[in-house]
Write a structure and sequence with these properties.
The complex is a heterodimer of chains A (163) and B (522). By secondary structure, chain A is α+β, with helices and mostly antiparallel strands. In chain A, 43% of the residues lie in helices and 12% in strands. Chain A folds into 2 domains: 9-65, Orthogonal Bundle (Arc Repressor Mutant, subunit A); 77-157, Glutaredoxin, CATH 3.40.30.10. Classes of the chains: A alpha+beta (163), B alpha/beta (522).
Chain lengths: 163, 522
């Protein structure tokens, strides 16, 4: 898992300035902020808007359009379950139900202990070995309920290193 | 010294290839064995991955799928037969890689180097014909390059199948102080992974294709718009761009030619709609990924309002072979108006899932039986979805259709990006139809009403049909709704969602009418 820092305006400013010579730099800036802090704090939207000389509404509009950008901190591990057709053909609907039941949360939610955030994803490009899930940036193949449970166990005991 | 190839792409890593590589390094160190380990891309024979290859005088010998526990025995065997480097009795022995029928019976042009070379070695790339296309392009006038592409018959491999040469011609003829080459690498269709394979396993071919496109239309800047889910591809592409800059293929002077071309990778953020070219351009400009009305087409007013070539990864990665070997060479493959080869991706419930690049014209039946080997679960195939989430579900009666753009259009289907997802007889086609509407509701950019509202209403109507509520009335409503979406949507998102829905509804009606009619209730 990745350790995220607490945000502060100076860091936001430093991150944003690194990208300002790029054309259409808003998405790269948002990516960099999320990489650093794990989410894009709503309180920094005004600051970003000022840097780009656009309204806060415009920045919010972009943020809220893209499912990847989040405005709240994620759990220690973000688990994405592929809901798309290739994975469906190999039983991902069962896996989806099993994951929600096991973690006690629905999609877009974080477990009460802050361990897991569950998100849907529509294709990981791993369709030859469905069903697929992603933990952080690591992709796993042929994930059935048993494999999912083993993975969760590993994550909770921190044996598995997620890069 | 023995050379061993251990693949490194997203899927092989998910199957344990990185751990295998570590284990082999440890084994070699332990036994003081001199090994040269090359991390190649994947050949795309995914049911055999992780597939390890050993270099011999006769060619590369493959073993797979190799698990951690196989390493000791396998490596000991390799050492024992050091003279020939072949150990044929091993249960994982697959023979010469090139002779594996799945690979032997393909015609790999776009994928010629994929899985063979070290993706980040420019020396490997050059040894295997890399930059030959660029070499030829540098001796030609822009218009001549465009003619080569037009004559080859290459059509957009992203899904729309628009002739690539015509697009380039428009950009070439549009005057502007700045033009762009944008690579659409937002491969979001379920069942597709060909773009990912090119970017992870042979990134220089894409870079070469983009440089040639730049020379052809007079563009000096290129962007690869890559989906967020493809982090390994991002890493490989960024390293490859860096290597290409160091070798002066990218930068102020492309190979000392006086032509400038610079390239940058930009990450998407999980929005499927950004695979639509105008939404992609808005996203690149730092906006919400909203679909634009056409005209103007991007070739006239694209990125930042400038003339822009927007091509898929596969189209651009096919450009070098056309320039290197001539348009006629490429055109000799295929049939009718579908010329050349198409990289098909066998996915989902199929025994031999993987990448199959063949000339247009093979039948779907041959693809899923001969190459695919039937379902992974061993049950009969019920439906095959071709062309991603906006593609039709095809029943048995349509499996003899040749894979060719026109033949598929004729049966109300699409080839799209070449994704082929197989379903066995446990699939509920009504559930699939409802998912198609749900997916459209989730991913719609929201600009046009038929797509934004129609998809939500579609989910509701399908729920009612499946529950058996006023079956006849709601069936008619579904058909009307699909017509509105198809004819009234701004882009393919809403316009083609009816394809999977209606193909499921028309060909698998029994799945929709399982519950008893509950008339009178709404």
């Amino acid at each position: 898992m990745v350790q995220h820092l607490n945000w502060d305006p100076a860091t936001i400013s430093r991150i944003a300035r690194k990208h300002l010579d790029q054309e259409g730099a808003l998405l790269p800036v948002l990516h960099s902020i999320q990489t650093e802090f794990g989410h894009i704090p709503p309180d920094c939207v005004g600051q970003i808007a000022d840097l780009f000389n656009v309204s806060a509404a415009e920045v919010h509009g972009v943020l809220s359009f893209y499912p990847f950008f989040r405005s709240t901190p994620p759990g220690r591990h973000t688990i994405q379950i592929c809901r798309a057709e290739a994975c469906q053909s190999m039983g991902s609907r069962l896996l989806e139900r099993h994951a929600k039941l096991t973690l006690g949360i629905d999609f877009h939610q974080t477990s009460a202990d802050g361990e897991f955030t569950l998100e849907p994803v529509y294709c990981l490009g791993n369709c030859a070995c469905s069903p697929s899930i992603r933990v952080g940036t690591q992709i796993f193949s042929h994930v059935d309920s048993a494999r999912f449970d083993a993975l969760i166990d590993d994550l909770q005991t921190n044996i598995l290193e997620v890069k | 010294m023995t050379t061993i190839y251990i693949p490194r792409d997203t899927t092989t890593i998910s199957l344990g290839a990185d751990k295998l590589a570590d284990e082999i390094v440890n084994f070699a160190a332990d036994k003081q064995l001199e090994l040269s380990i090359i991390r190649n891309g994947s050949r795309g024979l995914y049911w055999l991955e992780p597939m390890i290859e050993i270099e011999t005088s006769a060619g590369r010998i493959a073993y797979g799928p190799v698990m951690i526990e196989d390493i000791n025995y396998l490596m000991t065997s390799v050492m024992a037969s050091a003279s020939a480097n072949v150990y044929t009795d091993h249960p994982l022995y697959l023979g010469l890689t090139e002779d594996i029928p799945y690979l032997r019976d393909q015609q790999r042009l776009t994928f010629a180097r994929v899985g063979i070379i070290d993706p980040l070695s420019i020396e490997h790339f050059l040894q295997h014909g890399g930059f030959q296309g660029l070499k030829h392009a540098l001796t030609k006038k822009p218009a001549e390059i465009v003619v080569d592409i037009t004559d080859s018959g290459l059509r957009g491999r992203g899904g729309a199948a628009f002739p690539t040469g015509i697009k380039w011609q428009t950009v070439l003829l549009t005057e502007s102080d700045q033009k762009y080459i944008v690579c659409n690498a937002d491969e979001g269709d379920s069942g597709t992974f060909a773009d990912r394979m090119i970017m992870e396993s042979d990134p220089f071919s894409l870079i070469e294709g983009m440089i040639i496109a730049g020379l052809a239309v007079g563009a000096t800047r290129g962007y690869i718009y890559l989906r967020e889910e493809y982090r390994l591809a991002q890493q490989v592409l960024e390293q490859a761009i860096h290597v290409a800059e160091e070798h002066h293929y990218l930068g102020e002077q492309v190979h000392g030619s006086g032509h400038e071309f610079r390239l940058e990778v930009r990450m998407g953020a999980g929005a499927y709609i950004c695979g639509e070219e105008t939404a992609l351009l808005d996203s690149l400009e730092g906006k919400r990924g909203m679909v634009r009305t056409k005209p103007p087409v991007p070739a006239v007013a694209g990125l930042f309002g400038k003339p822009t070539v927007v091509n898929n990864v596969l189209s651009l990665a096919t450009v070098p072979v056309i320039l290197a070997r001539g348009s006629q060479f490429y055109k000799d493959y295929g049939l009718g108006r579908s010329r050349g080869t198409i990289p098909l991706q066998l996915a989902g419930n199929v025994r031999h899932a993987g990448l199959v690049e063949v000339a247009f014209g093979i039948s779907l039946r041959k693809l899923v039986t001969y190459f695919g080997g039937g379902t992974r679960t061993g049950k009969p195939i019920k439906a095959i979805q071709v062309g991603g989430p906006l593609g039709a579900y095809l029943p048995t009666a349509q499996w003899d259709t040749p894979l060719d753009y026109e033949a598929f259009t004729d049966i109300g289907a699409i080839l799209g990006h070449g994704g082929v997802v197989v379903f066995d007889d446990t699939v509920d086609m009504a559930e699939q139809a409802q998912f198609a509407m749900e997916f459209c509701a989730i991913e719609s950019c929201g600009k046009c009403t038929p797509c934004r509202i129609g998809s939500t209403r579609g989910v509701e109507v399908l729920e009612k049909i499946r529950q058996g509520t006023q079956r006849e009335k709601n069936s008619q409503l579904l058909i009307d709704l699909c017509e509105t979406m198809e004819l009234g949507s701004l882009c393919a998102m809403g316009g083609m969602t009816p394809f999977p829905v209606l193909s499921a509804f028309n060909n698998f009606r029994e799945d929709f009418f399982q519950s008893l009619e509950r008339d009178g209730e709404i």
